[in-house]
Amino acid sequence: MKSFFDLRGQLVRLAFGENPFPQEPKHVFVLCRYRDRWLLTDHKKRGWEFPGGKIEAGEDAKDAAVREVYEETGGVVDRLVPIGQYQVFDEREAFVKKIFFATIREIRQRPHYHETNGPLLVDEETLAKPLNDRFSFLMRDSVVAESIRYLKENRLPDILSPEGSENGKG
């Protein structure tokens, strides 16, 4: 388990595995891959970020992840893999976000993208560099970098190869 402070000064604990924290996640965060690029959304207030949001009443985390990806980007999830969770301690409470990796089958045009300006595709190199102010604060702490490192180390399941993502299997 890794601990660090985010850009707002809140303690964050990050762990990989199915359910590393005793409390149920209330939010999802989805690292999305479409062909050989990362699929982000352009949040109207926060900037560029991976899709995610609250788990609604009667919804499980996987359903929330699929819904959030579609609402915020038009992305249709092909495969969805839970990779970990992170716990944030804010001034009121501690809450948990479940982290998923998703491969995207297609991106559909939508009449609106809820609180975002829609999809944004970025290459591997863009996320490998220090992220600037165009990116949401959610992208500029250790969660994204550590999650991508975890995906690469575990070849989950060979998802970062362009061949795997181009043919709809990765």
TrEMBL record:
<dbReference type="GO" id="GO:0005737">
    <property type="term" value="C:cytoplasm"/>
</dbReference>
<dbReference type="InterPro" id="IPR014078">
    <property type="entry name" value="Nudix_YtkD"/>
</dbReference>
<dbReference type="InterPro" id="IPR020476">
    <property type="entry name" value="Nudix_hydrolase"/>
</dbReference>
<keyword id="KW-0479">Metal-binding</keyword>
<dbReference type="InterPro" id="IPR015797">
    <property type="entry name" value="NUDIX_hydrolase-like_dom_sf"/>
</dbReference>
<comment type="similarity">
    <text>Belongs to the Nudix hydrolase family.</text>
</comment>
<feature type="domain" description="Nudix hydrolase">
    <location>
        <begin position="11"/>
        <end position="145"/>
    </location>
</feature>
<dbReference type="Pfam" id="PF00293">
    <property type="entry name" value="NUDIX"/>
</dbReference>
<keyword id="KW-0460">Magnesium</keyword>
<protein>
    <submittedName>
        <fullName>8-oxo-dGTPase</fullName>
        <ecNumber>3.6.1.55</ecNumber>
    </submittedName>
</protein>
<dbReference type="InterPro" id="IPR000086">
    <property type="entry name" value="NUDIX_hydrolase_dom"/>
</dbReference>
<dbReference type="GO" id="GO:0035539">
    <property type="term" value="F:8-oxo-7,8-dihydrodeoxyguanosine triphosphate pyrophosphatase activity"/>
</dbReference>
<keyword id="KW-0378">Hydrolase</keyword>
<dbReference type="InterPro" id="IPR020084">
    <property type="entry name" value="NUDIX_hydrolase_CS"/>
</dbReference>
<dbReference type="GO" id="GO:0046872">
    <property type="term" value="F:metal ion binding"/>
</dbReference>
